[in-house]
Amino acid sequence: MISALNRLVDLVDARLTGELDIDGLAAAAGTTEYHLRRMFSSLAGMPLSEYVRRRRMTVAAAEVVRGSDDLLSIAVRYGYGSTEAFGRAFRAVHGAGPGDVRRDGGPLRTQPQLRFRLTVEGSTPMDTRIADRPAFRLIGRAARVPLIAEGVNPHIQQHIAALPAAEHTRLKALGDTDPAGLLQVCDDLDPDGAEGSELTYLHGVAVTEATRVPDDLDAIEVQAGRWAVFRTSGPHPQALQDTWAATATEWFPANPWRLRPGPSIVAVLDRADDFSTATCELWLPVEPQ
Fold this sequence. Notes:
Layout: H1 2-14, H2 22-28, H3 33-44, H4 48-66, H5 71-77, H6 83-94, H7 98-104, E1 128-133, E2 136-146, H8 154-161, H9 165-174, E3 183-187, E4 198-208, E5 218-222, E6 225-235, H10 238-254, E7 257-259, E8 264-271, E9 277-288
Antiparallel strand pairs: 1-6, 2-4, 2-5, 3-4, 3-8, 6-9, 7-9, 8-9
Helix pairs in contact: 4-6, 4-7, 5-6
């Protein structure tokens, strides 16, 4: 995976003025575009699309300062149909428009070429198992919320708090298959994992395909397949988020599995009354690499 990510970085620089065949690169590396994008955003701390934009504007800035071509020619070369669109992208990266930078020589904010390296970590074993599950459904109350990578997501908190206590009890009674108990489900996640991008959050339970779904509940159909199940324990949600990050930095690079499209599921097994600490299971859909 590390070598595939570095080839992706090289491809970005080779195609700054052209199209990126990320799917072809992923296939050549024996993985998928979905997995490659998810691993890139987790390890780089930014979506692939944002890195491409920053690199394009870094290289384009050198041409703007040189002044050998007019701004429209530079804009078209880097995939923009007008100087206005190019100017907006340029200003978002550098904090100043291309005309100002051409006149003043700056300011410029450079995005260096990324390079991924394998470091020796993993001194603490990850408590993991592989579960093979038939198709099932996730049912409950769903809402569209923005992605927040660190800390408590207030939008999810508000969604859960708005549900009456009787609804939590009702949902828990409906669950009849694994993952057991009340679940926190994230679906329709942008593969780039961009902060603030929208996802579907569902507070509910897992049921078999044969279980009748009440008309007033939302449902997510889950395909049969394998799941990597990570057990976490400690301060909440920090321990869970640390484990989520470690799946990208430690577990996937060391194991012959890759992410496949599907929801990520958190089952809370035990928790303190104030939810300051919790023991959870993080379920991620996987397939052989």
